[in-house]
Amino acid sequence: MVESKGSNAWCVPSFDCEPVNKPLVKRAKTARSDRTPLHRSSTQSDFKRKKHETSLSKLLQACEPQKSSELAISRQKQNEISRWLQDKSKGQPSMLILSGPSGCGKTAAVKLLARENDFDVVEWITPVDPAEDENSNSHRVVRQGDRFEDHLIRATRYHTVLGDCSKQLLLVKDLPNVYQEDCKSFFELVEKYFQIGREPVIFVCTETGNSKLMRTLFSPDVREKFGIDLININAATPTAMKNMLKRVSGTLNSIAGDMLHVSQRHIDEILSNSIGDVRSAVLNLIFVSLRVPEGHLKSECGIREETLGLLHGIGRVTNPKRKPHGDSFKFDHDPEEIAAFFQSHSVVFVKFLQENYLNTIRTLEEAAVASDILSLGDVLNSEWRDPNLRKVALSYCIRGLMLTNEKPVTAWNPVRKPRDDHSNIRRCLVTAEARCYEAIIKSIPKETNETLNEDEETIIEED
Question: Beta strand pairing status for 141-142 and 131-132?
Answer without folding.
Answer: antiparallel
